[in-house]
Design goal:
Blueprint lengths: L3 E5 L3 H12 L3 E5 L7 H6 L2 E2 L3 H4 L2 E4 L4 H11 L8 E4 L5 H13 L3 E4 L2 E2 L2 H5 L3 E6 L2 H5 L2 H7 E8 L3 H29 L4 H9 L7 H11 L8 H17 L5 H18 L14 H4 L10
Parallel strand pairs: 1-2, 1-4, 2-3, 4-5, 5-6, 8-9
Antiparallel strand pairs: 7-8
Helix pairs in contact: 9-10, 9-11, 9-12, 9-13, 10-11, 12-13
Length: 296
């Protein structure tokens, strides 16, 4: 018999996870607040469920924020039973993650915070790293799930540690992306052809892996979504809040957040996060593409 698993949340990342689980031979029961958004997965072989937690021993959750996960528990929390495992891939606030775990444990269930480092495209190709917080034996009991969509699985420690490590990762990742955008804009501003500058960057000590996934998108203005700009802004705001609670300043991330806000105000919130390049230089407001004169 196929192993059954539930999945709540069929957005960009949730759909990619579901596709990988289907490809790995799981029977996947999906639920989403807007049912029609689950239709493509149902056409691929998934089944709709009004309550995946009631029907499955293990359920993957992929929602926008920890608050959204808490709202979901208001709907389905009564279905949690001893032994239920909820695998939360949402990038959330570490304190809220610990509170969610407590709620689930009060019902006898098990909570793993398992945010994913990588985009939906990379998840679909099983190229991401999944960072898991929770008891080691419970993590090991779900390795078949993680292996279905991950290139690497890291057990970061107890509940909440996955959320903390994902925020750390996103701070560095986002700054790499902003640095690339700034470098390309700087090249344009001082009269250096951006594509030529990019080729140099690829083969210099300035290289970062983000260039492989976002460089061409910035150069061509192809902002089709792999990961939304507004979602990354949400993550950086969570990181800044966590830093403030710890009495710490993150000046580079504060500047990064403002760039994301600027791009969002220009209408790129729902675009790919590579659209941060549009926050640079007045010419980004005048041209179809800030770096080249071709259409998006």
């Amino acid at each position: 018999m196929k192993k059954r698993i539930g999945l709540i949340g069929t957005g960009l990342m949730g759909s990619a996870i579901a596709e990988r689980l289907l490809a790995a031979g799981f029977e996947v029961l999906v639920h989403n607040r807007t049912r029609r958004k689950a239709d493509p997965l149902i056409e691929m072989g998934a089944s709709w469920s009004d309550d995946p937690i009631a029907e499955c021993d293990r359920v993957v959750i992929c929602l926008y924020t920890s608050e959204t996960v808490a709202e979901m528990l208001e709907l389905f929390g009564a279905s949690i039973r001893p032994g239920s495992i909820l695998i939360d891939t949402t990038t959330g606030d570490p304190n809220q993650v610990v509170a969610l775990a407590k709620r689930i444990e009060d019902h006898g269930g098990i909570y793993l915070d398992a945010p994913i480092s990588g985009s939906s495209e990379q998840t679909r190709a099983s190229e991401v790293t999944t960072i898991v917080g929770g008891e080691r034996d419970k993590v090991e009991a779900c390795m078949d799930v993680f292996e279905a969509f991950s290139a690497r699985i890291i057990h970061a420690g107890g509940v909440g540690s996955g959320a903390k490590m994902k925020l750390i990762s996103n701070v560095v990742l986002g700054l790499n992306r902003a640095a690339l955008a700034e470098g390309l804009a700087f090249a344009k501003g001082i009269g250096v052809e951006p594509r030529g500058a990019f080729e140099v960057l690829l083969h210099s000590m300035a290289y970062s892996k983000i260039m492989d996934t976002k460089g061409e998108k910035m150069l061509s203005g192809d902002f089709r979504v792999a990961a939304k700009l507004s979602q990354h802004l949400k993550d950086i705001k969570i990181a800044l809040g966590a830093a403030q609670q710890a009495g710490q300043k993150l000046p580079l991330s504060e500047a990064h957040a403002q760039l994301l806000i600027d791009a969002e105000q220009l209408g790129f919130g729902e675009a790919d996060n590579s659209a941060i390049v549009r926050a640079y230089f007045p010419f980004a407001l005048r041209e179809e593409n800030p770096l080249e004169n071709n259409d998006d």
